[in-house]
Amino acid sequence: MNRPQAAAALAVLEAHRVEVAKKRTMDLFAEDPRRFQDFSAGLDDLLYDYSKNRLTRATLHHLFDLARACQLEKRRDALFGGEKVNVTEKRAALHMALRNFSGHAIHVDGKDVMPDVLAERAKFLAFAEAIRSGRFAGATGERFTDVVNIGIGGSDLGPAMAARALSPYAAPGLRAHFVSNVDGSDIADTLKQLDPARTLFIVSSKTFTTQETLKNAQSARHWLVTALGEAAVASHFAAVSTRLDKVAAFGILPDRVFGFWDWVGGRYSMWSAIGLSLAVLIGPNHFEDFLRGGFDVDEHFRTAPLAENIPVLMGLIGVWHRNVWGFPAQAVIPYDQRLARFPAYLQQLDMESNGKGVQLNGDAVTQATGPIIFGEPGTNGQHAFFQLLHQGTETTPVDFIVAAEPNEADPEHHVLLFANCIAQSEALMRGRSLEEVQEILRAQGLSEAEIGALAPHKVFSGDRPSSTLLYRKLTPRTLGRLVALYEHKVFVQSVIWNINPFDQWGVELGKELCNRLAPLVADASVDLAGLDGSTAGLIAARRFLQG
Ligand code: F6P
């Protein structure tokens, strides 16, 4: 860190860690009956419990000092004020305008963007409703039963995650599918289940240049035209993009093309028309509830004091783990099967935003930045990688995410689900000492020799940090809140690290090299001279294996 005040604040935290490390988290609870109340924060029916992390009131105090040293509040206001916070692309990052229900103007380059935002939203939600009601039907007059979103990254992960999360809100008889991978098996496996006469394609791409999306869109078009003829394209295709000129060239009717703006980053775009497939599935009212959830969090993030501000706390506790304790990863475990794609969605949001090594001014960073994000739904993860979380040599902080009430009727499942969730966070914190293990084994009648051999394997260090996000029920509004909480958490961390969370130059080199290599892969007669040995060898081996 080459910002002196921030570096000083971080140094204080590093010294403070030595003090905190002298106490076990369980002791912190024993000493402080109010720990749960004081180390949790709420937003309506959502509770963020961070009491099981190894930290004290002094830790929070030092973390807020760090935030102030990094001018977090000023940077947050610049974000909401439409300043060009995405410095390398000279753009604002105003996805919050897409869910702004305040009635107030939001300016980009001196222009209030809200009239355009509201008009475009009204347009794509009206289209969604027309598909749902059957007013817009397929070329043969049949009602649409299947919507296929073709997109990748931010034009796929958000709507795909949300379509699954909110499936209880889906219209009966409507199914949403998501095709993203350039691997032809993705679209082939999807189309196999579909009837062209009842299928609507939405081609979603901010830039409309993305290789995977264009290839999949061409394949979908070919499939449709083969079955129903060229004229069917008009009624079976819609598109979402900021590049309306490029969409027109693909042949999609202008009134079925929905726009958004360059001040909406791809991984922050599910609030825009990129959410069209979701809007068709759950309907305009539920889609607006989802947006309202995002707005709830924006208001909270903008106005709540640092000590009660959930995204600020999430971000700073992440910094405490990443930079002061040196933990390399962060697990996100939803105890909610319908959030199965939430960790994958967060991987792009967090790792594409904060996986950076250069500060805003171009200097190299001097501390670690974004952690490795991974996760799977509980309880499945428990039977896969939780062994490492409990006894592995790395400590991995965990975010547990769980509802108080299921969407399903059977309460017995939910009792077990919830009990598993809190049992895991308790086990990670509590651990089990060698003495405790020996006592248990003795009570089971094992000999001292057997105890000596087995006991070390059954020890849990404990003090493995976790936080829990608890909400009443997974509704569209709750989902909006969850997504926006993580968006702002990522922003908070980017401010501490002084990096730009809104660009993604790290994906460019691979794209460029792929464009150069594709002709060499396609044509076996092209000479491979000039390539490195491995790349040339792999192409040659493929040629050989293909005969
Ligand atoms: O992989 C890089 C990326 O640019 C992401 O940031 C983006 O979400 C994705 O590709 C898709 O881009 P587009 O929406 O322009 O097709």
From TrEMBL:
<feature type="active site">
    <location>
        <position position="383"/>
    </location>
</feature>
<dbReference type="GO" id="GO:0004347">
    <property type="term" value="F:glucose-6-phosphate isomerase activity"/>
</dbReference>
<dbReference type="InterPro" id="IPR001672">
    <property type="entry name" value="G6P_Isomerase"/>
</dbReference>
<comment type="function">
    <text>Catalyzes the reversible isomerization of glucose-6-phosphate to fructose-6-phosphate.</text>
</comment>
<dbReference type="InterPro" id="IPR023096">
    <property type="entry name" value="G6P_Isomerase_C"/>
</dbReference>
<protein>
    <recommendedName>
        <fullName>Glucose-6-phosphate isomerase</fullName>
        <ecNumber>5.3.1.9</ecNumber>
    </recommendedName>
</protein>
<dbReference type="InterPro" id="IPR018189">
    <property type="entry name" value="Phosphoglucose_isomerase_CS"/>
</dbReference>
<keyword id="KW-0312">Gluconeogenesis</keyword>
<dbReference type="GO" id="GO:0097367">
    <property type="term" value="F:carbohydrate derivative binding"/>
</dbReference>
<dbReference type="GO" id="GO:0006096">
    <property type="term" value="P:glycolytic process"/>
</dbReference>
<dbReference type="GO" id="GO:0051156">
    <property type="term" value="P:glucose 6-phosphate metabolic process"/>
</dbReference>
<feature type="active site">
    <location>
        <position position="511"/>
    </location>
</feature>
<comment type="similarity">
    <text>Belongs to the GPI family.</text>
</comment>
<feature type="active site" description="Proton donor">
    <location>
        <position position="352"/>
    </location>
</feature>
<comment type="pathway">
    <text>Carbohydrate degradation; glycolysis; D-glyceraldehyde 3-phosphate and glycerone phosphate from D-glucose: step 2/4.</text>
</comment>
<keyword id="KW-0963">Cytoplasm</keyword>
<keyword id="KW-0324">Glycolysis</keyword>
<dbReference type="GO" id="GO:0048029">
    <property type="term" value="F:monosaccharide binding"/>
</dbReference>
<dbReference type="InterPro" id="IPR046348">
    <property type="entry name" value="SIS_dom_sf"/>
</dbReference>
<dbReference type="GO" id="GO:0006094">
    <property type="term" value="P:gluconeogenesis"/>
</dbReference>
<dbReference type="GO" id="GO:0005829">
    <property type="term" value="C:cytosol"/>
</dbReference>
<dbReference type="InterPro" id="IPR035476">
    <property type="entry name" value="SIS_PGI_1"/>
</dbReference>
<dbReference type="InterPro" id="IPR035482">
    <property type="entry name" value="SIS_PGI_2"/>
</dbReference>
<dbReference type="Pfam" id="PF00342">
    <property type="entry name" value="PGI"/>
</dbReference>
<keyword id="KW-0413">Isomerase</keyword>
<comment type="pathway">
    <text>Carbohydrate biosynthesis; gluconeogenesis.</text>
</comment>
